[in-house]
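Operator note (shift B, R.M.): manual run for Monocyte to macrophage differentiation factor 2-like requested after the automated queue skipped it. Running by hand, logging everything below so the morning shift can see what happened. Input copied straight from the record, untouched. If output looks odd, do not overwrite the archive copy; leave it for review.
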Amino acid sequence: PKRLNGSSQNLFIYLFFRFMNNRVPSSKRYQPTEYEHAANCATHGFWIIPSILGSSVLYFLSDDQWETISAWMYGTGLSGLFIMSTMFHTVSWKKSHLRKVEQRFHMCDRMVIYFFIAASYAPWLNLRELGPWAVHMRWLVWIMACAGSAYVFFFHENVPFVFYLWESDRFKLNVLFQPNREGILELSVGGVFYCLGIVFFKSDGLIPFAHAIWHIFVVVGAGIHYYAIWRYLYATGTSQIKISR
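Run finished. Output pasted below as returned.
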């Protein structure tokens, strides 16, 4: 029995570790296995078309200029996130001698995260009545996106920490600055998924498919936030208070 248990344990360890490579020092980037490369591409590539369709739904539900602009801003950020991520992971998987190209895509993949965050703020900032302090967030989020991109240029491997610190500000924005509290639950739950995902982002070499799992957390968080935008800002029959321009 002990021998059988030992064999089963060894088989489990073999199956567990065959899908990932050894962990690397923090100064180097983890190299995924072929299985992990495929999962990294699929977990975001699958959502490119749904994100475009979802953005189109918001566009067709728009009743005025600001709803239309906000739908385009948010849709571009959402679709761009999945498109750039898939492009980077595809190039990384099939790079062969394209090392410099891979590095450029890696940098763009990180930069687009910040613009996705800024774009996902847009519907709430443009279509909701805001307190006196939150009005400045309409332009401040884009300054933060540019600052984040500059940060990526110099320290791109550490982006997720800044990303999630920024993401946590969603809850503060809605609690402190918006008289209308609808959507706070969804925004908070989506933010929790984003924050939990960072555990897997830092687990390459410890957990097989860790990066792909992180992708899934991002998809769930983005999906919950999309639902909140659709339901509370665009859905037919939803009463909205528009800001005087």
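Quick read of the result: The chain has a mean pLDDT of 79. The chain has one domain: 30-234.
Leaving this for review. - R.M.
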